[in-house]
Amino acid sequence: MSTSAWVGTWRPHRPRGPIAALYSSPGPKYGLPTNVGYRLHDPSRHRAPAYSFGARLAQHPDDRSPGPAYMLPPRTTAKGKDGTPAYSIYGRPRDLEPFRTPGPGCYSPEKAGRWAFPSPPVYSLRSRTKEFASDQTPGPAAYRLPPMLGPRIVSKSSAPNYSMPGRSTVGAFYQDLCKTPGPCNYRVVDANVYKSRAPQYSMLARNELPGDTTLKPGPGAYSPSTGKPQGLTFGIRHSDYLAPLIVDVPD
Questions:
Q1: In the chain, what are the helix, strand and coil shares in percent, each to the nearest 5?
Q2: What is the torsional sign of CA 69, 75, 81, 87?
Q3: Contact yes or no for 133/127 (Cβ under 8 A)
Q4: Is 41 exposed, middle or buried (0-12, 13-18, 19+ CB in 10 A)?
Q5: Alpha-carbon separation of residue 123 from 112, 118, 119, 167 (angstroms)
Q6: d(Cα 41, Cα 33) in Å, to the nearest integer?
Q7: Statement: residue 1 has pLDDT above 60
Q8: What pLDDT digit, counting tens, does each position of 52-61 carry?
Q9: Is pLDDT at 209 greater than 80 in this prediction?
Q10: Contact, 109 vs 115, CB < 8 A?
């Protein structure tokens, strides 16, 4: 049995030309718009009309149409009405009455009276009708002609009019001037109303700062001369952890 891993005479070698399987490519995946369907269709291509079957609407459940079954009249063919002639029997109509035109001897022009011949005016006196009681027409005395004197003449220009009024108490020589208001009765308008407002100041009471209200000892409360004065010494700092110094060593 052969220990070689290759079968036959084939051995690995450098390819003589490019092999497509050795190179990676995107394949048939392009970013162009589709030409199938209605949505996202290519705008440069013709798009055919699209139709769909919609669901039955729920807001009209009571509509029931007859469908394609129609009640056609009888004797109706695919080309229209049947061509067989039909006849019916009706009653005889009545004859029209002739015109009854009057003849020449039926006229009486002498009876025309004032409508055909000139006649003087005719008047008559009648009683007052019932409807006359509700009429609100003014009588002859209700009309008033324009006056001929004064400034209200319609057809003429009026002359100047003068009148003598009563004596006035204001501005006359006998006017009581003591009743006129004095200088103090006039109210002076504040200048801040019609001019720029001036700055305003006010004087308030002095404010005290909050302080400590506790009692403090004065200078006489201290006694520096009393008590034992403390002395100062120089010594060695001792520690509890140091061993004692042994000077006398026994023999």
A1: 15, 0, 85
A2: negative
A3: no
A4: middle
A5: 19, 16, 12, 65
A6: 6
A7: no
A8: 787 776 665 5
A9: no
A10: no
User: Which single residue is written with the structure tokens 């729920």?
Assistant: 58
Between CA 74 and CA 81 the distance in angstroms is: 9
pLDDT reported for residue 240: 59
Hey, what are 21's tokens?
């399987």
The model's pTM: 0.14
Q: Which residue is it, tokens 């049995």?
A: 1
DSSP symbol at 35: S
Residue in 47, 27, 29, 30 with CA at minimum distance from that of residue 39: 47
Averaged pLDDT, 203-224: 79
Q: Would the CA dihedral through 180, 182, 184, 186 be positive or negative?
A: positive
- Per residue in 138-183, pLDDT (tens digit) is 777 787 777 777 777 777 777 777 888 887 777 777 777 777 777 7
